[in-house]
Amino acid sequence: MTDLDAELKALIIETLELEDIEVADIVSDEPLFGDDGGLGLDSIDALEIGLVLEERYGIELDPEEESTREHFHSISSLAKLVRQFA
Questions:
Q1: CA torsion sign, 54 to 80 to 62 to 15?
Q2: Which of 8, 12, 21, 59 has the smallest C-beta neighbourhood within 10 Å, fewest atoms?
């Protein structure tokens, strides 16, 4: 796990107030959304994460674009997005 992966995991835990989940519990390549593993997040969670990414990293995403869905697939894909803006 990279430092950025750990930072993003902690950010998601804090933002969504996931009290029973720790950084080590989140697998970087697992899907963040849906019922097929991972955290099982939903569209409201995506909006909250998007706002935090904009605040913290200056990343502005269009929720209507297909690429946005791809960026939010996993911690790894979010980290790749953040690196593009760094």
A1: negative
A2: 21
